[in-house]
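no rush on this but wanted to send it before i forget. theres a chain ive been looking at and ive put its sequence and its fold in token form underneath. please have a look and point out which stretches look like helix strand or loop to you. thanks a lot i owe you, the record is right below:
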Amino acid sequence: IIPKTIEKLRAQGIPSHELEVVIGPHIQKKSFEVEYDVRDQILNSLGGITAQERSAFADTISDKKALVDINQVVKAQLQQEGIEHDKVFDLHIDTFANTDFHSYRRDKEKSGRQVSFICRLR
């Protein structure tokens, strides 16, 4: 989603250096336990990174599962798209741990829905 969104913004004449990004509420690393196939799909979104680089985005917790750091993945994608580190703001809100937010992973069928958005301020 991030590379395609930035590509569309550039096509509208908005250079990457003018963008500021807020990473809103989402599941955080300590709560995001996934099997290796999901981990690999997420990390493959970063392109060709080395095994050592991959270790910065996920911690192995068993022979089948890992904790994935979506914050770091998003920040790396933004950096790859030319967004400066000091223009990225992370709210660090864990939707799994914080019951003020919906989480299907936590609440299953009883969960509500989150809304995310991208906007252009002038």
About this structure: Strands lie at 21-23, 33-35, 58-60, 65-68, 88-90. The chain is about 30% helix and 15% strand.
